[in-house]
Amino acid sequence: MSTSPAAEPPLYQQVKDYIVGRIVAGDWPEETKVPSENELTRELKVSRMTVHRALRELTAEGWLERVQGAGTFVAPPKPQSEILAVRNIAEEIAARGHAHSTEILYVRRERARALEAQLLGLERGDPLFHSLIVHRENGVPVQLEDRYVNPQAAPDYLEQDFTAITPHSYLMQAAPISEAEHVVTAVMPSAEERKLLGMKAGEPCLELRRQTWSGGLPVTSARLLHPGERYRLGGRFAG
Amino acid sequence: MSTSPAAEPPLYQQVKDYIVGRIVAGDWPEETKVPSENELTRELKVSRMTVHRALRELTAEGWLERVQGAGTFVAPPKPQSEILAVRNIAEEIAARGHAHSTEILYVRRERARALEAQLLGLERGDPLFHSLIVHRENGVPVQLEDRYVNPQAAPDYLEQDFTAITPHSYLMQAAPISEAEHVVTAVMPSAEERKLLGMKAGEPCLELRRQTWSGGLPVTSARLLHPGERYRLGGRFAG
DNA sequence: CGGCCCCTGTTGTATATACAAGTTGGTATA
DNA sequence: TATACCAACTTGTATATACAACAGGGGCCG
Lengths: 239, 239
Hints:
Two copies of one chain form a homodimer. By secondary structure, chain A is of the alpha+beta class. The first copy, chain A, folds into two domains: 11-74, Arc Repressor Mutant, subunit A (Orthogonal Bundle), CATH 1.10.10; 89-227, Chorismate lyase. Chain A has helices spanning 11-24, 37-44, 48-60, 89-95, 114-120, 167-174, 191-196; strands at 33-34, 64-67, 71-74, 100-111, 127-137, 140-149, 179-187, 205-214, 217-227, 233-238. In chain A, the strands form two sheets. Chain A has a six-stranded antiparallel β-sheet with strand order 4-5-6-9-8-7. The first copy, chain A, has a three-stranded antiparallel β-sheet with strand order 1-3-2. In chain A, strand 8 (205-214) and strand 9 (217-227) form a beta hairpin. Chain A is elongated. The two termini of chain A are 24 Å apart. Chain A binds a DNA duplex through helix 3.
């Protein structure tokens, strides 16, 4: 395998490219057994640990499946679809070159009802925090954020100024995410929600329900409503 | 670092857990410089390559940022939200223990109009394939799939029996994904779409627009409509 | 014919060693 | 005061070696 210094990628990356190239070209359909580490070592004239790193990374990226003792196989395409990580609405708006502003309807302490207690690992009647906020982009409402927060995870939540920092940003600091769960669906807003978001009758909303944990402790459960016409959730990724 | 054989994780994983534990506990806020590989080697009594693997993997997972020569730093929480990969509706329905069936409205060759030409890297007037299919779960419509396919990427598309295999499954075989792009939003369906999906007036749809590439070549552009009340897109992931 | 054992080949993990490439800070000189 | 150089420390990559753990196939024995 070539290793001349003309801005070439490292050897483990060349091995990865070689293998992905074989798969994409159709040489190795799914379930095909890929040559063993020792075979690739001989074929490509690189060390077994270099081959091993390439195969391990391709496995982590979803291209291959490995079974200790049995071999390495081309993986079937993964049938899953997930929201990957958690978005900060203020940075998202700034990234579009627009101005973010917030209208705080309330940020207050409440007693947990059955549903919130269940979501946040609390007992009914326990105190928790509740905030309702409209996020605007260049003055236009784009998100209604209805959020419950576990006081154990972020005791100082009520003290924050959420016109200066989003709840999301604050919670990232106070309780770094170790786990998250998302559900996205389409709903019709209530009359109040429609009014807060400046929507016309009959227009739908994109609803994101998002829950996060920090070190096993539930942190927050949020319901984010976006006018369907003015908001889209998306991304682009490489295999 | 303990290495007794009582079902312990490998050393590199223990190093990862130690570092994530320090971050989540608040010991190392974002931007903090993490001890160097050599320092961690001495502190944890494992080899530098074991530490190196742990740090590299935590970097790939978004916890850390590394600069060659400068050091390793705790990463700020990533403000991004993406659909991770591509879902196969048939497997998704099967995973719920339900029966998948399809109603094929058409699968045919057409001439590319301006929008489809742009999406698939074709010239206006070039031939392309177009399919319209309703997917049902236990007889109930859950997805209307409106899909354009680039003949260069999947020349045999028209020959497939899409009651036996989904377009998605076939395309995974014919043109493995190297890149994908998704956009999710909420829309009101047209009268025809509402009828095909068995929805009542005033109910919204979750719309996914999905485009994939194979080795740089555009493969397909699909618009998937789901009744908001009967479909949700979601996932759970660990930090 | 079936089951068990052994051998071979495979992947998984760990370490040591070496060198490359980059950053940073301090010192010396102009 | 600015610039250049050097040393030390950092991360990045590569290889060799060793051993653990697993899978699979073949042969032998009951």
